[in-house]
Amino acid sequence: MTQESILNSVKEASILDRSLLEKLQSERLQDIFAYARAHSPYLRQKYEDLPESPHLDEIPVSLRSELTGHFNDWVTDPEVKESDIKNFLSDTNNIGTKFLGKYTVMTTSGTSGDPLIMLRDVHHLTAHGAIMQERYRNGPLLRGVKGLEDPQKLKVCGIISPPGFHSAYMSYLGIKTQFKALGKENDLLYLPVNTPLAEMEERLNALQPDIVACYPSAMVILALSQQAGRLNIRPKYIGCSAEQLSPANRLLLEKTFGCPIIDNYCSTEGGEIALLCPNGHLHVNADWLILEPVDAENRPVSPGQVSDGVLLTNLANRVQPVIRYRLSDKILWHDEPCGCGITLPFIEVQGREEEILVFEHGATKIPISPTVFLLLVVDLDDCVAAQFIQRSPLSLEVRYLAKEGSPRNRTATELKSQLDDIFRQNGLPVQVVLSDEPLIRTQKGGKIRAVFKEFG
Fold first, then answer.
1. Which residues, 6+ apart, have CB-to-CB distance to 122 below 8 Å?
2. CATH 1.20.1050.10, domain 357-453, yes or no
3. What's the whole-model pTM score?
4. Nearest-angstrom CA–CA distance, 200 and 222
5. In CATH, 3-126+266-350 is 3.40.50.12780
């Protein structure tokens, strides 16, 4: 498919009858399944007993730990080798460049302790680029917003991850290239999410951005700054992603900044999974993705029932097929019509919202976004998972898992050094306590909360 045909397909699928949408899904599922079985040695073996065109529920579930353990045989391009990618990732000069000249490489790590390297090919990037153009930038929430007609007049700020092989930062690099070509470098502001709050307020006030892209928790902190009078900006819209944006926080942001709030539910494995509509519903990009809400045993759950996890199928990525891949996100599926005009099904996402930790020093209270802590784990080579527990106004306990074969004391040193820097930049004498205790899991479901407080 050409870029133009994919864009037209995305536009049509937004209002497609549900039966026709399911037919389109089925066709694309068979296409990606056949490609995976033909070109991925691991999946060929995994699927060897399946019929030529299986139903979705006949395809076995895949887990991150299983697939990452067979990385070289999971990918479909024999030129791709895990050792070469790791060498590529070890050089920060490669951020923003293509691996082998053709693949975008992203990394992530979760509380499961299984690091993930994900490749995105041109087919995935074209399909999801079309989704963002048609359903985000030209979508119903931004339609009619004055001042967006001429991109050359817009000022943009991204409050995202520190430099690294992360989706948000690489998206920023793409925008930076566009702004540079237009001679507009001074109209683009990049603020790492761990930037001290006072500096963030000062630089936002100086730029007066028309568009702000930010993690929801960091944007809530800035809303409090706006209400206190330290921040005074009037963006035309705010784009949130990566964390759960609760209805209450969305309303808070709308009232505080007086502009539309966009939300993008995404994942490294799937790309843009769902986008917010004017009715506050996250519509699944079901033309290029399949989501299956399931229980703990991977059995389907009914609409209106909160799932224990979700099975994700990426219908666009051919180089690293993601088919019935289990994510731990809990969702509630809706089959009923939305009323906004978009016929794509919609969901509610549960459990992605970590706590904003507020540290107190004298009369000063400084909130820090949970994303600041979560990104530490992604960027530390020796750490595969960590849990940050605030025990008092000026103390933080950290429980962590070191990578197999890495000295635990080296992981502790790296974590403490990074955290001490964050607190020092914010003028906080926080005591960081590295603990040997196991990560705390919830009584129900055994999940791991990554950032929370336990005191008071």
1. 102
2. no
3. 0.86
4. 9
5. yes
| Mean pLDDT of the residues in the chain | 91
How many whole angstroms separate alpha carbon 286 and alpha carbon 291? 8
Element (H, E) at 293: strand 289-294
One fold for both 3-126+266-350 and 146-259? yes
H helix or E strand, kind and range, residue 431: strand 431-435
- Radius of gyration of the chain, Cα coordinates, nearest whole angstrom: 22
Angle at 272 between CA 332 and CA 41, to 5 degrees: 100
pLDDT band with cut points at 50, 70 and 90 for residue 32: very high
- State the distance between the two ends of the chain, measured CA to CA, in whole angstroms: 58
Considering only CA atoms, which of 2, 5, 3, 24 is closest in space to residue 13? 24
Query: Residue 182 has which token pair?
Result: 């237009």
pLDDT in tens, 112-154: 445 689 999 999 999 999 999 999 999 999 988 999 988 889 9
Residue 20 has pLDDT above 80, yes or no: yes
Spatial separation of the C-alpha atoms in residues 353 and 370, rounded to whole Å: 9
Q: How many CB atoms lie within 10 A of CB 85?
A: 21
Domain locations along the chain: 3-126+266-350, 146-259, 357-453
CA angle, residues 291, 292, 298, in degrees to nearest 5: 140
> Taking the domain 146-259, which CATH number applies?
3.40.50.980
